[in-house]
Design goal:
Elements: H1 2-15, E1 18-19, H2 24-27, H3 33-43, E2 46-47, E3 52-53, E4 58-60, E5 65-67, E6 72-73, E7 78-80, E8 87-89, E9 94-95, E10 100-102, E11 126-128, E12 133-134, E13 139-140, E14 145-146, E15 151-152, E16 157-158, E17 166-169, E18 174-178
Parallel strand pairs: 2-5, 3-6, 4-7, 5-8, 7-10, 8-11, 9-12, 10-13, 11-14, 12-15, 13-16, 15-17
Antiparallel strand pairs: 1-4, 17-18
Length: about 180
């Protein structure tokens, strides 16, 4: 019985559309560059040859996530795509540790139904354009596009799209500066 459960868990880890510390039979591969590249190239919709996915990071619905050139996904970062929406991180994007990306959110419209039973709003793509910088522990919510060479301050909660060449900070994130 125990052997059967171990084999079942190994098969799940290999076949599942996710990467993270909760998937132990593939997570170890993230500690070795060649194994990390092989795993990520297999799992992600697109994973550039110069991208890096560090151990301790999570990706859900990898088949709907694209990671561009010179992008490092650091520990505690969470990429939550689903079958209806994707996350696209273009080339040369800097991402601090602990950043969360979400393509959907729980419904909370009705008073007559417990929140846990209300389901989800429709999923929306998240796009981070070339050269952007996302500060540590930021949260990027569904439908957000972070513009080219824009900066998101550490800890910001980005609820609306940020145009190109802007600096946005806070909760909710607000533009405080345009880059020249």
């Amino acid at each position: 019985m125990l052997i059967f459960e171990i084999v079942k868990k190994i098969k799940f880890c290999i076949d599942t559309d996710r990467i993270g510390p909760d998937i132990p039979f593939t997570h170890w591969m993230l500690h070795y560059k060649s194994k990390m590249r092989k795993l990520c190239s297999k799992k992600f919709k697109y994973f550039a040859i110069t991208a890096d996915f560090r151990s301790g990071a999570y990706a859900i619905s990898c088949s709907n996530i694209c990671i561009g050139e010179n992008v490092v996904i650091r520990p505690l970062t969470m990429l939550f795509a689903d079958e209806f929406a994707q996350i696209v991180i273009e080339n040369n994007v800097m991402i601090g540790a602990g950043v969360h990306f979400y393509v959907n959110n729980h419904r909370f419209d009705r008073r007559d139904i417990p929140l846990i039973e209300q389901g989800y709003y429709p999923s929306k793509d998240v796009i981070v354009k070339e050269g952007a910088w996302i500060g540590a522990n930021s949260i990027i919510l569904p439908g957000v596009t972070v513009g080219k060479n824009s900066v998101i301050g550490a800890g910001a909660v980005v609820t609306k799209s940020i145009p190109d060449f802007c600096v946005a900070v806070g909760n909710p994130a607000k533009i405080i500066k345009e880059l020249k």
